[in-house]
Design goal:
179 residues; alpha+beta; Glycoprotein, Type 4 Pilin; Dna Ligase, domain 1; 2 domains; 4 helices; 6 strands; 27% helix; 27% strand
């Protein structure tokens, strides 16, 4: 499980995401970084939301990863910018307005007690046999959310009904990094 992240590391992790996206836009090689600090090689899930002029332009996650955090960030950043099927690929003219929101997954635990869920702090991963989705507090900001309502939103995002017996819910604790 990943712990606290130093300020200089936060800056590099955000830079790695943006550099990977720019490299793809410019048709250049994806930059490599010296992985001289333990945190860069730690395995951690990543969720990346891309915003252009306050509108979502990509939103992809790899909640559990076997690769080091830098490699996972670069991969997920590229997938968010160019391969999220809900959005057109990012274009060069959007670059100046691009903002990266990076969530580093600290821990994922199965939700066994509804009282353990805090919709203002916890992410929620819902899995069905055929699909999965992640809901984060930012996704429902401005809407008063009860734990049950939060679970319903996550189920809808996964294309399922809240009452479906084949759903499993997992709490996600994370560190949010923004530019």
């Amino acid at each position: 499980m990943i712990g606290e992240i130093k300020i200089e590391d936060k800056k590099l992790l955000l830079k790695a995401a943006k550099d990977a996206i720019w490299a793809k836009l410019a048709q250049e090689d994806i930059p490599t970084y010296y992985k001289d600090r333990d945190i860069y090689n730690e395995k951690a899930g990543v969720i990346i939301k891309l915003m252009v002029k306050e509108k979502i332009r990509g939103y992809i996650s790899e909640a559990q990863s076997q690769a080091g955090i830098l490699d996972t960030i670069q991969k997920v950043a590229i997938n968010s910018a160019f391969y999220d099927p809900r959005f057109d690929s990012l274009k060069k003219e959007e670059w100046d307005d691009l903002r990266v929101v990076l969530y580093i997954v600290k821990d994922i635990t199965e939700l066994k007690n509804l009282k353990a869920l805090n919709p203002t702090q916890d992410g929620l991963l819902v899995k069905s046999p055929s699909n999965s989705a992640i809901l984060l507090p930012d996704d429902v900001s401005g809407v008063p959310m009860t734990p049950e309502g939060y679970m319903k939103e996550a189920a809808l995002k996964a294309g399922s009904s809240f009452q479906s017996s084949d759903l499993k819910y997992f709490l996600i604790s994370f560190i949010k990094l923004t530019e």
